[in-house]
Amino acid sequence: MSLVRRSHPSRIAMLHHLLLVFVLLLIACIDAPASNSEQGPPVVAVSDTTTAGEETMVVFARVMTAARAEAFHERPFGEVVQAVGEVLIGTQYQDGLLDVGAEETLVADLTAFDCVLYVENVLALARGIAQGDYSFAGYVANLEDLRYRDGIMAGYCSRLHYFTDWMYDNASREHVTNITQDLGGEAFPKTLDFMTTHRSAYERLAGDSAFACIVDMEEAIRGRELFYVPQDRVESVYDHLKAGDVIATATHIGGLDVTHTGFVYRTDDGGVGFLHASSTGEVKVADDLAAYIRSNDVQIGIIVARPVDPKSEEEGM
User: Fold this and answer.
1) Which of 61, 207, 212, 301 has the highest Cβ tally under 10 A?
2) SS3 for 50?
3) Into how many domains does the chain fold?
4) Which of 137, 169, 201 is the endpoint of a domain?
């Protein structure tokens, strides 16, 4: 597949219009009473297939302001990823954000994350910053590129539901490199069928056509070689991990590959933490990655993917 980014002229025009409207709303509402927070942030249609909330626009502006002020783009790409992830520390954890409607839409939400959405949003923002693209349109395009098979949203089944499949698809397009085997990872034999064997847990699978598509997807990814670094060896690979490396926690649960995702967090004194959207409530840093992996019985090790600097992707085209 070509690495040239697809162009969406109508979407970009609508996004620019939305930004202008949003600025005017901010000016008009300076003295207005606060809205009822229990109703949630207003959701607006960015295009026919994309939604974002006003609060997301505010968070987006905050991230880009920090990126410009602190010259994130001058850092190695992994450090850009970590820096963006740090700006979002304290953001609340929330499940089910992508399944709020009957039809698949590209949800761009920076006000709450589950663990995978945190990874996707941080990478989408960081890729734009590294390329000197501070536009909301660029962020949305990056988000679609990361979240969906071949970078194209084409319904629920096109979403990369299994995280090792997410790694595989994004590696095929040189957005990440799976370095688990290079770290001395061991074979991780898995048959990924959790979605179809737990159909009732997925509302979108009630329809037979969607279910059949997921069956076909699981069949297509079956047989791929997977590797993981067992939990008792995680600390031994610290010297080979970089800031911003994507971490997925391998699990023994049948039919499932991973249970959690986040980033390597490197400290100035050489520490290796775990930056993630925690189900305990918010985006935070666990002080020690290995200790975090040992803290949960379903986590048996890690799978690691290194984000590729998008500037190097352009140079290789």
Assistant:
1) 301
2) strand
3) 2
4) 169
Q: Are residues 162 and 183 in the same domain?
A: no
Kindly state whether residues 101 and 189 are assigned to the same domain. no
- The count of other CB atoms within 10 Å of the CB of residue 214 is 19
Phi then psi dihedrals of residue 114, to 5 deg: -95, -175
* Other beta carbons less than 10 A from residue 10's beta carbon: 9
pLDDT at 172 over 70: yes
Q: Which residues contact 91 (CB under 8 A, 6 or more apart)?
A: 59, 110, 111, 112, 113, 118, 277, 282, 283
Same domain, 43 and 92: yes
CA distance 159 to 151: 9
The predicted pLDDT at position 9 comes to 35
User: Would you say 97 and 112 are in contact if contact means Cβ atoms under 8 Å apart?
Assistant: yes
pLDDT of residue 100: 81
> What's the whole-model pTM score?
0.84
Question: Domain ends where: 144, 169, 194?
Answer: 169
Question: Is residue 4 situated within a structural domain?
Answer: no
Mean pLDDT for the stretch of residues 153-171: 98
Identify the domain containing residue 191 by its residue range.
177-315
Nearest Cα to Cα of residue 110 among 283, 262, 298, 292: 283
pLDDT level of residue 196 (50, 70, 90 thresholds)? very high
Residue 29 has what pLDDT?
A: 31
Q: At 314, is the pLDDT very low, low, confident or very high (cuts 50, 70, 90)? A: low
146 and 182 fall within a common domain: no
Cβ atoms < 10 Å from Cβ of 167: 25
195 and 309 share one domain: yes
Place of tokens 């918010």: 282
Measured in whole angstroms, the distance separating CA 33 from the mean position of its chain's CA atoms is: 34
What is the pLDDT at residue 51? 72
Give me 19's structure tokens.
Answer: 């930004």
